[in-house]
Amino acid sequence: MNRLPFNTSSRPMNRQAGVAAVELALLLPILIPFLILGYFTVSIFWHYTMVQKAAQDATRYLSTVPVAEMLTPGPAKAAGALAAQIATREIAEISPETVVSDVLAFCITGNVTINCGSGLATTTPPTAVRVTLSIAMFDPSGFIDTGWNGLQITANYTMRYVGN
């Protein structure tokens, strides 16, 4: 009895050699944008959390300024400037490449919201303080176009003034 030698080329294992490489070549252009988009989304949330924390810390300082300083325009303006400096330095410490475009400190009395130190009534301390902080975020990978000005991320934090 003469048997034919076993043909190895007809085995399923050899016919599928390289299929994984072909699948990877087909799916990789689809997967890479999803990975970049996921990274960019996480980066947006990280920057927003950083800005919100900086605004919260600046507002916490501003809410503890003594009433005597808040009722005098000069020291109130200096306290607002120091709150802005606290927020700016905190962001620079966490993310040195981030550009802080705007930091504003507001004093709220009733329904009136004004910049701290500019025209605040000298007889009534504020009931709340607010810090508004804005940064420009750019995509560090360069794959997503955020424009010339970047993606603007703004955080507001309002806190009751403890002098009341």
Your description of this structure?
By secondary structure, the protein is an alpha+beta fold. It has one domain. The chain is built from four helices and four strands. It has helices at 12-15, 19-63, 67-70, 73-94, and strands spanning 99-109, 112-115, 128-137, 151-160. Strands 2-1-3-4 form a four-stranded antiparallel β-sheet. A hairpin with a 2-residue loop joins strand 1 and strand 2 (112-115). The mean pLDDT is 84.
Strand count, sense and barrel status of the largest sheet are: 4 strands, antiparallel
Radius of gyration: 29 Å
Distinct helical segment count = 4
Listing every helix as H and every strand as E from the N terminus to the C terminus, the arrangement reads HHHHEEEE
- How many beta-strand elements? 4
- Overall 3D form: rod-shaped
Quick check: average pLDDT? Answer: 84
Give the percentage of residues in beta strands: 15-25%
Helicity level: 40-55%
Domain module tally = 1
- Class per helix and strand makeup: alpha+beta
Give the N-terminus to C-terminus distance in angstroms: 107 Å
Which strands sit side by side, in order, in the main sheet? Answer: 2-1-3-4
Low-confidence stretches: none
